[in-house]
Design brief:
421 residues; alpha+beta; FAD/NAD(P)-binding domain; Helicase, Ruva Protein, domain 3; 2 domains; eight-stranded mixed β-sheet; six-stranded antiparallel beta barrel; 13 helices; binds flavin-adenine dinucleotide; Aminoacetone oxidase family FAD-binding enzyme
Length: 421
């Protein structure tokens, strides 16, 4: 930092927002000749990062084929090509491993720290900032910008102004506002002439209308298939993990289907169907039940079900099947058995709506990518402004994609802002 004769604090680069995107940008921008400040309104940097992956931080997605990675991000994914080529998942893993944070790859190519602690990821990043002598300003809410001759002159805090040659906006979106992301960046970017694609909560849990769903609270299902239906037509399908909450359903496959659900809800009623036995088709499952019923002919229905289902689903399935709980397996009729197979292959619920920003993992929409250079993240409207992270109109499914967007865009913005005089 240079203190000017008039007392002005002047940096080469000022990064606004100390989440993953801002931290990566600040660390990358800093060098002996480039003085960088990172400013955050919270008392600690990376508050949201600590919540990621249920406190374990799914750092990235080990999809090393950039084309395949980008396919998962939808139509806006193309924007990430250059940034991903410069700092993709492999380089992110190397970045952390070189700083002694060992990583492991889990199901679905999700990359986690071996320690299973998001705190360790954050500490590694803060060490990175310290090593690069980045000035960290916490408890410092940015209130706005001053513009001079079409360029940002300084950021305004409550009691001071911070001047810099270049500014990186990395204040996130609107999701999980309790962590500090309250949409301030959209307001500033719009004021500076940027178009904001209407933000919406993305990767968000769903409310279920059926009252009995409350009895399933806490139930986690692995290896199930979840399909989304409208007007008796299947609209989408995902395999994997989901869970029941006090209001409805959440977990990776629900979050990943939430975009489709949201779009369909705008048109009418939406049903979801859980296939509890996706590996067995209808005839195979029916055959298995028939065999089991012969083998355990004297067992009653209720005592047999734990072989098929988690505890919490037993009572609901008994009710929905209409089969008497005490009925001996050898007296269950063919029609009853078929009904049971139908339930196991398609447990239906009606969606009552999606939750809002408070529970959303990311924000869809944001700064229009047409107005941002995809190699440098530089604004095409304000010459000394750069963007990084969730504030941009790009987001991905669960599995480490969203943090990778932060690392790649943060890296690109930091490198470019440092080079630009
Ligand atoms: C519960 C949860 C779990 C998640 N798990 C994963 C996961 O495992 N893997 C994955 O890839 N993604 C995950 N995500 C998504 C991921 O956390 C986000 O994509 C990522 O944090 C966005 O980073 P960012 O730096 O753009 O913004 P943020 O992390 O939101 O950081 C923005 C920062 O800007 C600061 N700020 C805002 N306004 C101001 C202001 N006016 N003045 C000063 N500072 C300001 C905020 O305090 C905040 O620290 C998860 C999200 C949530 C909510």
């Amino acid at each position: 930092m240079i203190i000017r004769s008039d007392g002005q604090k002047h940096f080469s680069v000022a990064v606004i927002g100390g989440g993953p995107a801002g931290i990566m940008a600040a660390g990358q921008a800093a060098s002996p000749g480039t003085k960088v400040v990172i400013i955050d309104k919270n008392h600690n940097l990376g508050r949201k990062l600590l919540l990621t992956g249920k406190g374990r931080c799914n750092i990235t997605q080990a999809e090393f084929n950039d084309r395949e990675f980008i396919k998962k991000l939808g139509p806006n994914g193309q924007f990430l090509f250059s940034a991903l080529a410069a700092f993709g998942p492999k380089k992110v893993i190397d970045f952390f491993e070189q700083r002694s944070l060992l990583t492991k790859i889990e199901r679905g190519r999700r990359v986690f720290p071996v320690s299973d602690k998001a705190q360790d990821v954050l500490e590694t990043l803060i060490r990175y900032l310290r090593e690069n002598k980045v000035k960290i300003m916490i408890d410092s809410k940015v209130l706005g910008f001053e513009i001079k001759a079409g360029q940002i002159d300084c950021v305004k805090l409550k009691n001071e102004k911070i001047y810099a040659d270049n500014f990186i906006l990395a204040v996130g979106g609107l999701a999980y506002p309790g962590t500090g992301s309250t949409g301030d960046g959209y307001v500033w970017a719009r004021k500076m002439g940027h178009k904001i694609i209407k933000p919406f909560p993305s990767l968000v849990p769903a409310r279920i209308k059926e009252d009995w769903v409350k009895d399933l609270q806490g139930l986690s299902l692995k290896n199930v298939a979840l399909s989304v239906w409208q007007d008796n037509k299947k609209q989408d399908l995902k395999f994997g993990e989901m869970l029941f909450t006090h209001f409805g359903v959440s977990g990776p496959i629900v979050l990943d289907l939430s975009k489709t659900i949201g779009e369909l809800l705008a048109k009418g009623e939406v049903k979801i169907e859980i296939d509890l036995k996706p590996a067995l088709d209808f005839p195979v499952l029916d055959k298995r039940l028939r065999r089991d019923f012969i083998k355990n002919s004297n067992k009653n229905f209720k005592n047999y079900l734990p072989e098929l289902l988690p505890q919490k689903l037993i009572e609901p399935i008994i009710k929905l099947s209409g089969i008497n709980a005490g009925k001996k397996l050898n007296s269950i009729t063919k029609d009853e058995r078929k009904k049971l197979v139908n339930l196991l292959k398609g447990l239906k619920f009606t969606v009552g709506g999606l939750l809002g920003y408070k529970q959303a993992i990311v924000t869809g929409g944001g700064v229009d990518l047409k107005e941002v250079d995809s190699k440098t993240m530089q604004s095409k409207i304000v010459n000394n402004l750069f963007f990084a992270g969730e504030i941009l109109d790009i987001d991905g499914p669960t599995g480490g994609y969203n943090l990778q967007i932060c690392w790649s865009t943060g890296y690109a913005a930091g490198a470019a802002a440092a080079l630009k005089g």
